[in-house]
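Minutes, project check-in
Item: structure for the 229-residue chain
Input as provided by the requester:
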Amino acid sequence: MRSTTLVIIPAYNEAATIGQVIKNIKRWCDADILVVNDGSTDGTSAAAREEKVAVIDLPCNLGIGGAMQTGYRYACQHGYEFAVQVDADGQHDPRFIEDLIHPLRAGKVDMVIGSRYIENRNYRGTLARRAGSWFFTFLLKLFTGQAIYDTTSGFRAINRQVLAEFARHYPPDYPEVEVIMQLLRRGYHIKEIPVVMYPRKGGHSSITMLKSVYYMFKVSLAMVIDCLR
């Protein structure tokens, strides 16, 4: 019988890790799994298919926003109640997937974010990443009155109402902070729970210093524009 939860894994050139990530998810939860292969040039798609999960092969690289919106549209079309985003590089610990979904099932919130920063779980990250997260926490508090501490976490779960929103519109790049802002301003409820995260277990990050500067500028501008609407 099909699960009510779909785990969406956006993947770009993650052939080295995608198989083990899928195995770990199957070990810790009985959710259905969809890999959105975002135009990879390595064996990501074949490695995912070996694990007998659903795979969508995008014809070109759309970036994280396009890959996730593809997954959200798939979830809506197939009637899933909940969707969970999990990175393909092994950073997210699937033992926490059920913890992310539980508040959604209870009907208490609309989105649950796995947070590295609300308890000391030994995650360090780079100084630049932590500084960026603190900056966006400040802006969100300023614009919405609510403090979200791990604004850039991609380990998050949503209910069907938010799924429908994201299937219609989702920012094309660097969407994590922007969608939190949009949901809070529309009256949705968001909760953070503490999780464990690890350094990536393979592949290469696409984040560079130049992209980080663009990220800060683009997301900050999007938040200001959202406030002015």
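Outcome recorded: The two ends are 44 Å apart (CA to CA).
No further action items on this chain.
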